[in-house]
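The passage that follows is intended for readers who have already worked through the single-chain material. We present the inputs for a multi-component assembly, then the predicted structure in tokenized form, and finally a short commentary. You are encouraged to pause after the input and sketch how you expect the pieces to fit together before reading on.
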Amino acid sequence: MTETRYIKAINEALHEEMTRDENVVIIGEDVGAPGGAFGGTRGLLQAFGDKRVKDTPISESAIVGLALGAAMKGLRPVVEVMFADFLPVCMDQIVNQIAKTRFMFGGQFAAPLVIRAPGGAGLNAGPQHSQSLEAWFAHIPGLKVVMPATPADAKGLLKSAIRDNDPVLVLEHKALYASSGDVPAGEYLVPIGKADVRRTGKHVTIVTLSRMVLDSLEAAETLAAQGIDVEVIDLRSISPLDRQAIFSSVEKTSRLVIAHEAVKSFGIGAEISAMVSEEMIDVLDAPILRVGAPFSPVPFSQEREYLPNAADIVRAVEKVMNY
Amino acid sequence: MTKPKDPAISAAIPNDDGLMDLHHSMLRVRLVEEKLLQVFADGKIPGFIHVSIGQEAVATGVCSCLTPADTIFTTHRGHGHTLAKGMELKPFMAEIFGRANGACHGNSGSMHVASAEAGVGGANGIVGAGLPISLGSAFGTAFKGEDSVTVVFFGDGASNQGTFHESLNLAALWNLPLVFVCENNGWAQFSAQKAYMKIDSIARRADGYGMPGVLVDGDDVLKVRDGMRQALARARAGDGPTLLECKTYRWFGHYAGDPQKYRPAANVEQARTVDCIANFEKFLIEQGLAGRQQLDDVDARLRVEIDEAIAYAEASPAAPKGQYLNDVYA
Ligand SMILES: Cc1ncc(C[n+]2csc(CCOP(=O)(O)OP(=O)(O)O)c2C)c(N)n1
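Having made your guess, compare it with the prediction:
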């Protein structure tokens, strides 16, 4: 274990996977000598050369589509899209092509590729550079979507994503890039589709992901001081969703709060809430509450006010407890 | 591609008015952005900003030909275009500071400043996204029988987006009153142009879509203006769009604070010896059109105006609680 920054953990994963498998190639804007807009691909060009680390023009549709074709030819492309907000620029390739290749062609072709893209707010980057769009992609059969909250998961999930035989969208959080935590050196895989219980508790379950894991853990501390014992589940994978982890926790606590940074309406919280209601309505002692952002684009100057935070989670848990 | 007509500056000057306006406009953009870099470094502006220092001749040369009825669409590096088009400085500054009285209510910041009044259809955070929108603007004014023209600014990097190619084709096909202004500053973020395209001149691409492509020296405001006048004449006459490429250089980093490890400082220093404003001042003085003192007075007046706008922005109130919910729907 070494204390490593989130972005460094991503970089480590890429180094290790490129070393392990010569079919892993890196594709994206400024991923070569500059090492990526946020430093994720730093040193890869020097280590592996420009045959495997491909700087591209600003052409998101072309580069994401190219990754699909290359994957069909046996490569393992890892595409970097500089901000998750630019995924809509190449949405056809992702949704109509990449996600459906295996299905439409009866399994004759596969799309084992990874798209890395930083989402989330926190840098006052404004409406077109701050969004959390995971629900869009989780809604598409054929795609896998993961969202690491810690440096260790950033490494372990990315390594698993590169080895996965299906397309995986890795939504990193740009406000977490500078955060650090213990990361196992060398081979370390986090299975896709497995949530992590980040804190055990018996009164309320908080299901959360990405940056909101930190807010949820902070809220749990505050609530512990009031005698409320919170269990925090970090989803890590949005699709496939670890339904069992959620069910087991709610079985124990009978209360559920879901916290995400994305706009609350039509978010993944709605899916989880519906799923738990369908499966275990008899177990619930209170309505399921969601914490998410207001129904507005991410504002530039009022970002802090706009974003859901630990205090919002505390309020939701209190409400569930007082029901 | 058609060769630009050399404007033969000296012959054009004596009867030509507006030269002092060109100077004023370029210097205003430069001084505003220098000030922005300073206040940004002081931590007074949230988020990030992209400046166009060194490229002022493009913004000014193009916008000096336009009327308030004409519309421009710009990019993340849009301060210059926006101000040269005539946006008031105070709401511009207040937006960049994220204040309630900013042009976009503080919702958007530097990357999305817009002014309906001044005909600025908005800066844009998505590279290449302005081009399709400009098509519709040109279509809309033509549809209504207005004789105004739309201009879309974009970078060399943006010319590799599908939107560029789709838009040029459609604009040519429909003869839209539109001017595509490619501000080629040689860089897209951390990469030099040769790293992402095989050709030197983006204007050459026009040929493939059936419109004139004109390459001008983007560091010479008169050459830009001349190229723009010809493009506008075509558009206003109903002869369709032009691709006008203005070759210039990005003096500063991609964003304010960019350490620029990807390019040697010496190259930047070298490029900065071609200064559109200093050259134009020299020209004005040599031609006897302005004296040094006169130009310095312009500079001094601009600094006062800019300081006032900064003070205004700083004194402006923050957006009221929940303001972001007000602009989502009608
Ligand atoms: C669709 C999209 N891809 C990538 C980016 C990130 N990005 C912002 S500006 C920029 C470079 C743009 O270069 P150019 O078009 O030449 O304009 P310049 O910055 O030189 O003015 C990049 C890659 C973006 N904002 N949008």
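Commentary: Residues A 29, 58, 60, 82, 86, 89; B 75-77, 125-127, 154-158, 185, 187-189, 250 surround thiamine diphosphate (CB under 6 Å). Strands of chain B lie at 71-73, 150-155, 178-184, 187-188, 191-192, 213-217, 242-247. How closely did your sketch match?
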